[in-house]
Design a protein that fits this description.
One of its GO terms (molecular function) is pyridoxal phosphate binding. Helices cover 41% and strands 15% of the residues. Strands 3, 5, 6, 7, 8, 9, 10, 11 and 12 form a nine-stranded mixed β-sheet that branches. The longest helix is centred in the C-terminal third of the chain and has 26 residues. Bound molecules: pyridoxal-5'-phosphate.
């Protein structure tokens, strides 16, 4: 950086600001004169710096108005296409690769697009840390003894308040706090199923769900998903006609691993099927607060008049998975779930619960959601551009409207597991398609990318390297 001419250093810094969403499409850059004054450089240096941004296609000049950030997305690729037939229920076997990907993703020496972890560059997270420090100083979380078996009441109240945005009206007493969303789904499945039971899941499916299916000795029937509308309700209907399914598990809002958003009429149709077959629906809404549109999507639970939907969520994607704070809105299964929670663990994470309750109540959580969602949208757009620019013809990619994961489908003959291994050898982590099905070859030519992290030249280069590795496989 030091060896670069001054105008190029300034252009790079501004480029970074645009990449990170500080300046968004349509925003005006600071004027040449005022920015030059701030940086103590001449107007001509500033003009050359902004000219360079213009050459890079990032900004445009509007006569007499100044420099404006251009709309980022310049190229588009088609959506992934999934096979539509449903196969028989299958037992999940070893998921060793999941552990390997998670370990490699956590290695700071690697550039990771692997694990679905939120970015850590938002001011709200600093505020959360200060809330922790404050609570720790106050010592209110100390004191020997167990909390209420149902968990921290202020947090339950905040969860009940937030639920209204997804169209759900419940009392705080109807909230069961859990250890993360995964812990919540596990409790639901333990309560509702026996080993050997069949449950309906999405395909491709979040690997944590497959791990649970394996651990609880269930059988999964994989219901095909659409890249933009999620689980196929038509295919679910056929599966329900054919198999004695005990529960439906779905991620209707910005699902993992594709980022699909189920339309409201599909949500209603799914619920009608559940009503008809008298089945519980476990709705994972962990990404629901991270939409890029102004209206938060409704939940399946918001249409539920019979209390059969158990909505599970957490702050793992909105704040930090290490907090371990999740919840279930279990509807008619409340008492069973409370009992299951009690026999699984009696303690609660008092400090975390207090800090998160405070964050939700007065700590700017909603503002943080707006900032994070806007940043993720920008980061998605940048990824879509990079993939369109570097990857070979025949590549498909989903365009999530929320969350921070997307699905890349390579031309059929390319093996994403081989790509994963050769990328890993170069310190780049992706989540290969084999992790997302009971059948490891089903998504062999696809992989999931997590784009939460801010873009840096290294991360951009890593995408080009991935594309280069794909080209070598051609
Ligand atoms: C769809 C989905 N559900 C649940 C989880 C797990 O959430 P938690 O970390 O809160 O247990 C994840 C994490 O990747 C996820 O993507």
């Amino acid at each position: 950086m030091k060896d670069l001419p001054l105008y190029e250093q300034i252009a790079d810094q501004m480029h970074e600001q645009i990449r990170n969403g500080v300046y968004r499409s349509g925003d005006k850059l600071p004027s040449v004169r005022s920015h030059g004054k701030t940086l103590n450089v001449s107007i001509s240096t500033m003009l050359t710096a902004y000219g360079l941004l213009e050459d890079r296609g990032l900004v445009e000049v509007k006569p007499k108005s100044g420099y404006f950030v251009k709309a980022h997305r310049t190229q588009t690729l088609p959506e992934p296409k999934f096979v539509t037939e449903t196969v028989s229920p299958t037992q999940v076997t070893s998921l060793q690769r999941v552990m390997e990907v998670l370990k490699a993703s956590a290695d700071p020496g690697n550039i990771s697009f692997g694990a679905a972890v939120p970015a850590a560059d938002f001011p709200a997270l600093t505020h959360l840390k200060s809330l922790f420090a404050q609570k720790a100083r106050q010592g209110t979380f100390m004191g020997v003894g167990y909390d209420s078996v149902h968990g921290n009441q202020p947090l339950r109240r905040e969860v009940a308040k937030k639920a209204v945005e997804g169209g759900v009206y419940i009392a705080p007493e109807e909230v069961v706090l859990t250890s993360g969303c995964q812990g919540g789904i596990a409790l639901c499945l333990r309560t509702l199923t026996q080993p050997g039971d069949i449950i309906a899941i999405e395909s491709p499916c979040y690997y944590g769900m497959l791990q649970l299916v394996e651990a609880l000795q269930l059988k999964a029937i994989e219901i095909p998903s659409d890249a933009s509308t999620g689980m196929s309700v038509e295919a679910l209907k056929l599966a329900l006609e054919q198999w004695p399914i005990k529960a439906i598990v779905c991620i209707p809002n910005y699902n993992n691993p594709v980022g699909a958003l189920m339309p409201d009429d599909h949500k209603q149709a799914l619920l009608e099927l559940a009503n008809y077959y008298d089945l519980p629906v476990i709705e994972d809404d962990i990404y629901g607060d991270l939409g890029y549109q102004s209206r938060r999507p409704r939940t399946v639970k918001s249409y539920d008049t019979q209390g059969r939907v158990l909505l599970c969520s957490s702050v793992s994607k909105t704040l930090d998975p290490q907090l371990g704070i999740g919840w279930i809105l279990p509807g008619r299964y409340l008492q069973q779930l409370q009992y299951e929670r009690f026999i699984n663990s009696v303690f609660s994470l008092r400090l975390q619960q207090q800090a998160v309750a405070e964050m939700l109540a007065h700590g700017g959580y909603d503002r943080h959601l707006r900032t994070a969602s806007e940043a993720y949208k920008q980061r998605r757009d940048h990824l879509l551009d990079l993939v369109a620019r570097h990857f070979p013809k025949g590549t498909r990619i989903s365009t999530p409207l929320g969350g921070f994961v997307t699905w890349i489908q390579l031309p059929l003959h390319i093996d994403a597991t081989r790509l994963y291994l050769s990328a890993l050898a170069k310190g780049i982590v992706i989540a290969p398609g084999e992790l997302f099905s009971t059948n490891p070859s089903k998504f062999r030519h696809s992989f999931r990318v997590s784009y939460a992290e801010p873009w840096t030249p290294e991360r951009e280069k890593a995408i080009a390297t991935l594309a280069h590795l794909v080209a070598q496989e051609q």
